[in-house]
Amino acid sequence: MTFYDLNFIQKTFIHYAKENTRSDPNNSDQIPSSPNQIKMAKELTKQLKEIGLDAYFNDKSCFAIGHLTSNVSDKVTPIGFFSHMDTADFNAVNIQPHVHKNYDGGRVALDKEAGIFLDPKEFPALKSCQGETLITSDGHTLLGVDDKAGIVGILGMLKYLVAHPKVEHGDIYVGFGPDEEIGYGGKRFDPKDFPNVELAYTLENGRPGDFEYETFNATLAKIHIHGTVVHPGEAYGLMVNATTLMNKFLDQMPADEVPEKSKGHDGYYMVVNSSSCVDHADIDIIIRDFDWDKYLAKEQFIKDLVAKLNKKYGADRFKLTLRREYENIYNVIKDHPYVVNLALDAYKKAGIKPNVKTFRGGTDGNFITQKGIPTPNLFNGGGNYHGRYEYVTVEQIDKLSKVLTTICKEHLYQTRHGRDNTPLKKYW
Ligand SMILES: [Zn+2]
Q: Which CATH code, of 3.90.1150.10, 3.40.630.10, 3.90.550.10, 3.40.1160.10, is assigned to 6-214+329-417?
């Protein structure tokens, strides 16, 4: 049994998937970073109006905003949903979605001649898509499941609610934003577009049932090292080679606290960039941790290492700048357990088994939560995000529409019958 009109979901997903809305990290001071995102935001605004919402395009933030008015007389606090229009940093020119009806669970040829296959031996999660309508790319671009599946899931919910006026709900706000992949969408969201919204959800990736109310705390550490250049023939006792100093620094970084040795609730350091010559060197390190104290300890470790090496090699050879990027949403959400319980209660009512885990990254929700709207993360279905092997099924997006609708219904139900404020348990 499906929930909504699968034809609408398939058609709408393919339509938006074909639009090249790749964001541009080198153009992040422009809003949006790539012009096609304006086109898509305007199109979405139009579609929201056609469905029956009050909608507008905010040209300062490049968000398409929609408001579905409450159809009950109860006082229900408004609820919000976000998904982003831009796609990851991967080829998005001439996206050709392929539809595989009643997928047989086997190997899928994306481009037979070029030898590009999507193989469940390599990607076992594909097996769960058997019998469904699978959508893939042609193997040369990404598909844009992240987060066009989220957008279509929201549209599916809205269409359903408008078509079923007897299904009661409070005010619902939706926001389709730009530039999430480059870390600017949520940052530029204007909370005035979501008046009185008390809680919201992002729809970043994940399988049906996944749920995250923890993201990393994130810092970028930039270390600049300066050496002393002397002609090598006369360098004895004088030259200080910045490359040597850089290697000393990197040698003392914890070898086991790196992404390739971290999972679950572990944090890490990752050297994302290093470059050097005799005169100077630069190291960029990202610091990630869920736990606030461990996160601060990681920042402190870098500060201490810089101080130690400065002591050994002379003051100010190493210069450190720490830039805080975003904060774990849990720091706020822990005081708003309803936001979490509501979603998990709705999953159960929608017949979907919740799978609570950590989001090993950041979302628009990091910034939106900081702006006063606690925003944990649901899912959008699909898999293999950000590359040529991306896929999603129409049925998974349908499930998402069902979950979103159930959250709206459950929010009204708990407004009437008492909120589930059970304190959050540590699940890790
Ligand atoms: Zn995303």
A: 3.40.630.10
pLDDT in tens, 11-45: 999 999 999 999 999 999 999 999 999 999 999 99
Positive or negative CA dihedral for 74, 342, 420, 213?
negative
| 377: number of Cβ within 10 Å | 27
Measure 92 CA to ligand 1 centroid, in angstroms. 15
> In the CATH hierarchy, which top-level class contains the domain 218-324?
alpha beta
User: Is the Cβ–Cβ distance between 4 and 28 less than 8 Å?
Assistant: no
Sign of CA dihedral 12, 157, 68, 163: positive
Q: What string of DSSP letters covers 374-419?
A: ---B-----BSTTSTT-EEEHHHHHHHHHHHHHHHHHHHHHHHH--
Q: Please check the confidence at residue 419 and state whether its pLDDT lies above 50.
A: yes
- Tokens linked to 422: 């059970």
Contact yes or no for 287/269 (Cβ under 8 A): yes
Q: Which of 196, 212, 199, 197 is nearest to 339 (CA)?
A: 199
Residue ranges per structural domain of the chain? 6-214+329-417, 218-324
**Which residues participate in catalysis according to the annotation?**
86, 180
How many residues does the structure list for the chain?
A: 428
Cite the annotated binding site for Zn(2+) by residue number: 84, 146, 181, 386
Q: Mapping DSSP to helix (H, G, I), strand (E, B) and coil, where does residue 245 land?
A: helix
| Residue-level pLDDT at 1 | 46
Locus of tokens 């210069």: 319
Binding residue numbers: 84, 146, 181, 386
DSSP-H helix ranges across 96-180: 145-163
- From the CA of 87, how far away is ligand 1's center (Å)? 7
Asked whether the predicted pLDDT for residue 4 surpasses 80, the reply is no
Extended beta strands in 95-227, E state: 98-100, 108-111, 116-118, 134-136, 172-177, 199-202, 210-211, 217-226
User: What is residue 138's DSSP assignment?
Assistant: -
Cα of 374 from ligand 1 centre, angstroms: 18
Structure tokens at 83: 């998904």
Phi and psi at residue 49, in whole multiples of 5°? -65, -45
Q: Kindly give the distance from the C-alpha atom of residue 84 to the centroid of ligand 1, in angstroms, as a whole number.
A: 7
